[in-house]
Amino acid sequence: MPLAIDASIILLYFAGILTIGLYMGRRERNLNDFALGGRRMPWWAVMASIIAAEVSAATFLGAPGEGFEKHSIAYAQLVIGVILGRILVGVIFLKPYYLFKVYTVYDYLAIRFGVMSKNYVSALFLLMRTLASGFRVFVPTIVMVLAWQVLIHGGQSVAFNPKAIGLMPYIIAIVIVTLLTCIYTAVGGIKAVIWTDLIQATLMFGSALLAIATLLYHIGGDSFNLSRGFHSLGQAVPEMKTHAGYIFFGWEDRFVDAYKTKHNIETMTAWQWVRLMLENDYTLVSATIASIATNMAVFGTDQDLVQRLLTAETYKKSRRSLIAAACMDLPIASAFAFIGVLLVVFYQQRPLLKPESNSHIFGAYILNVMPPGIRGVVLAGVFATAMGSLSTALNALATSATNDWYIPYFAREKSEHHHVSAARFFTIFFAVLMIVVASAFAYVTVQNPSVRIIPVALGIAGLFLGPMLGVFLIGMLTRSRGSDAGNLIAITVGLVSMIFISGQHIDLLNLLHPVAAGMKPIYRLPEWMPVVSWTWFALAGAIIVFCIGVLFPTSTHARARVQERIEQSAANEDKPLALRK
């Protein structure tokens, strides 16, 4: 009976989302409707859609894992850079996009530099977003597989062992989530995405608050005595009592002490301080400087999130949506990280319930401990975050593939109806690709359950987004620097550099030359070279590409084209750039 209640809530959610998505997205007559909603979406709906898109299942399940791992909500301090970065996007990026009435942000590169720059960066986006979103599709299947384990054990608590479960349950769950999301996204386009995102964002945050309430209930001796709950929290994580700033800015003391112990030193040199900041994920410096670059890259160059910004009527309303969503990120990120801190206490009190991997700690708590009804709502919240970010990615990928590649090279003379049909085909195509990618990540996780969710989900994007940001900054901050050929060189150097900065070349070499269990890997980074954290990827890539790209002057033809577009923009018909004369 309890499981039937939860299942009914989840099925009701799925039915409601499909119905609303199909209804809101009806009558898609052209690519302007499918990709941009006719540029008539209200700013508050765009704001909710941004929240739903960026708070994926990786955040829903991964941020608690980070809070559990770090014993603090230090993950939430990255929001400092979120707000500052989005203010810069609103000031620097949005007006040119609206001025040229772009369908994808890569249209801007075609105007500013040329077609080669557009195609290169658009191709990087298609690759990056398929990989990153494919991983995000896999994340909620952790909970679905957990739920299946609970079901076959008659509702009893279970110890979660991915290797014992095997790969097939994950693949089945991946197909279910992707298929349901693909249906309303392919039919309804961006309007279906935004209106369903509004519901999913509300459900997502409400689920987090419910989870916090139930955790405080359980760690407080199964009573709603908040003082007892927070007293247990202070005893389990004493840093929160002795250091008032630890719970938020928790990196200083612990990371510095760990670094000194590891390297057997008493006094830190300037270079050692730099290494400390580069090697740790959540420092105050990364929360400001590095996070600013990451958010400029995500909301200025990633079609996945920029596309909904282009659906507002004006760039000022779009900017309002962006900054309002950024302000909401602080309570949202804090809530999910705080769930992880509370789980530290919970699993200290009930160690037999703790799963093998920190990535599964919240999912295991939801399935094994939460009361019926509440468990159903929170599980619906997990699926809401997954479907919200997935629908966004599918629509952006389909729009980019159609506008940037299919129309210019294969369908310039085709009808608007044909273009919409093509966008729907690409929605299905990328859904299939994501199933493949998500299944690959499922295999990796089954083999290595200790994989952390957040670094993988954001690190993949960071490797690509930094070089992409560098090109856009050349275009936005200069008038006469940057060229098609120069951008191709700069981006290529930036991507190769990111492989070395992130240490991926070492991982590849060790993969090609494995050693016996218990032995140290053959290849390691030089002692002097820091292991750069994923939080710095976007900034490093952007700096490299910008510094190389500005060495090349913009051609006279490209500068004249920009001026011509500015003069024609007010009178230009609202068509895809590929169809404009």
What is the topology?
Blueprint: H1 2-24, H2 31-36, H3 43-54, H4 57-70, H5 79-92, H6 94-99, H7 106-112, H8 115-152, H9 162-165, H10 168-219, H11 226-236, H12 239-242, H13 252-263, H14 270-279, H15 284-301, H16 303-309, H17 315-349, H18 361-368, H19 374-410, H20 416-447, H21 453-477, H22 484-501, H23 504-512, H24 537-549, H25 556-568
Describe the structure.
The structure is a single chain. The chain has 25 helices and no strands. By secondary structure, the protein is an all-alpha fold. Helix 4 packs across helix 17, helix 4 (57-70) crosses helix 19 (374-410) and helix 15 (284-301) crosses helix 24 (537-549). The radius of gyration is 24 Å and the shape is globular. Residues 241-251 and 577-581 have low confidence and may be disordered.
Assembly context of the chains = single chain
Gyration radius, to the nearest Å? 24 Å
N→C terminal distance: 64 Å
How much of the residues is beta strand, in percent?
under 5%
Shape: globular
Keywords:
single chain, 581 residues, mainly alpha, disordered C terminus
Summary, kept brief:
By secondary structure, this protein is an all-alpha fold. Helices cover 74% and strands 0% of the residues.
